[in-house]
Design a protein that fits this description.
The chain has helices at 2-15, 19-30, 49-111. By secondary structure, it is mainly alpha-helical. The protein is flat.
């Protein structure tokens, strides 16, 4: 019956679930290369010279954070470059195949010119 076929389909789908494989697919799909920001340590503000040193520390931690984000963006750039390389490789492959096909047409036409004769 229809219910049994549906149940069998559901059982087959459940049996084909692979947790590790599905996790890898999801990780690859949603990987951006960005890492979550690191915890920023806050220091107690006090009066006098210590205040100046803490603001200096805060500026230094901000510069470290910007350096980390630059490194994280390299992964995204690499991923984009690799996709561009693959796109250009496929275009080169397509062009090469077209060139070979045209050369075959030229060779066939020169060997048997009556093939391409429109007056017949």
């Amino acid at each position: 019956t229809m219910v049994n076929k549906c149940r069998e389909g559901v059982e087959e789908a459940v049996a084909s679930i692979s947790v590790d494989k599905d996790q890898e697919i999801l990780k690859e799909r949603y990987t951006t290369g960005d890492l979550p920001p690191t915890d920023i340590q806050f220091e107690e503000m006090s009066l006098g010279r210590e205040k100046k040193s803490s603001s200096l520390t805060r500026r230094m931690s901000r510069s470290n954070y910007s350096q980390k984000t630059d490194k994280q963006n390299l992964f995204q750039k690499k991923r984009k470059l690799l996709s561009n390389i693959e796109k250009y490789r496929s275009e080169i492959s397509k062009g090469t195949k077209e060139k070979q096909a045209l050369q075959l047409m030229i060779n066939t036409n020169t060997k048997t010119p009556e093939f391409g004769d429109a007056s017949k």
